[in-house]
Amino acid sequence: MLPTNVRRLHPRPTSAPLHGVDSQGFKDAMRQLASGVCVVTVGAGDERNGLTATSVSSLSDEPPTLLVCVHRAASSYPAFERYGAFAVNVLAADQREIADRFAGATNAGGAGRFAGGRWLELPDGGVCLAESVAVLDCEVEERIERHSHAIVIGRVRRTMIGANSGALVYWRGRYDQIGWTDAEVARAVGLSPRIGAFSPT
């Protein structure tokens, strides 16, 4: 018998076969999982490319390792096969336009996606986004191809902590923000960051 504070979960009926769930049902469920938004950059020079990713996860801290899931049909995936490094740029709340551009919402592709934003060159020729919340520069340790995607495992070789701002998150098909600085709160309510409730007394 269940404890009184535990409720049974009653799944909604779907048209899915008995042995599994259909693709749309899976997507609908995963949209309930709020995720940070990252731009993953790969390649150098005119071969620079990148994508917007929410499937980024820590794998281990000994050694520091993370994983990124990349669709094998993505225009940027060949660069992961060709280059041995990539950078994960954790986006700030005001970088939705950059997230859209690297997600393919505009006609920009390849190196054209880097037209906006301030980019810094990494030692191996790759680039990272200067105004991002954090950057993790990685060496490709392994690629594991499964179904439609590849799991790219990266050994983190350097990190940088950047903008002091809220982070961009994605939930239920929309962007949102988590974390607010005093200046961001002031602007949101129409105050100058230097006056009002956030000014020194």
TrEMBL record:
Residues 30-177 form the Flavin reductase like domain. Residues 1-21 are annotated as: Disordered. It comes from the Bacteria. SMART domains: Flavin_Reduct (SM00903). GO terms for molecular function: FMN binding; riboflavin reductase (NADPH) activity. Keywords: Oxidoreductase. InterPro entries: Flavin_Rdtase-like_dom, NADH-dep_flavin_reductase, Split_barrel_FMN-bd. Pfam families: Flavin_Reduct (PF01613). The keyword Lipid metabolism does not apply. Belongs to the non-flavoprotein flavin reductase family. This is Flavin reductase (DIM6/NTAB) family NADH-FMN oxidoreductase RutF. It comes from Roseiarcus fermentans.
